[in-house]
Amino acid sequence: MTTQTETGAETEAGAESAADAADRAALFAPVDDPADLPGRFMRAFNARDLQAIDHLFEPGCVRVLTPGNVVSGDGRRAATSSFMALGIPMRLSVRHTYVYDDLALIIGDYLIEGTKPDGTHVLHQGTATDVCRRGADGHWRYAIDNPPGTDRAADGS
């Protein structure tokens, strides 16, 4: 609840709301350095803000669910939503960012580990390899989101 004193100063609840609004606005700020994309993704994921995550992707971006299984659009959003629904925060650390002209390759390790409300232990981890592109507006977005990254297909290929 936000209340104001006679001097017009906001109480703690109002300041918290302003801080939350500022944090959410930061999730939508343009990305000028591709190395910043993974951290922004992690913050949006942990905030369970699918709209902020969508903002980080090109409209035609694809996501690799498993080697050989690629989705885009609503399929990509559904895959992301299913992981966010676990309610377990993600940790992500970037190993390498390689930039050439308007393309970037980001290699990073991610971990989603914890216990769901029903007591089920969850562990998803891997080394992602993502391709990003600088748009005509000068801002970077994911073009290929590949969480399985270095995993091999079930048939070993």
Automatic annotation (TrEMBL):
Q: Which InterPro entries match?
A: DUF4440, NTF2-like_dom_sf
Taxonomic superkingdom: Bacteria
Query: Any idea where the DUF4440 domain is?
Result: 40-141
A Pfam family annotated for this UniProt entry: DUF4440
- According to UniProt, the name of this protein is DUF4440 domain-containing protein
Annotated organism of origin: Kitasatospora setae (strain ATCC 33774 / DSM 43861 / JCM 3304 / KCC A-0304 / NBRC 14216 / KM-6054)
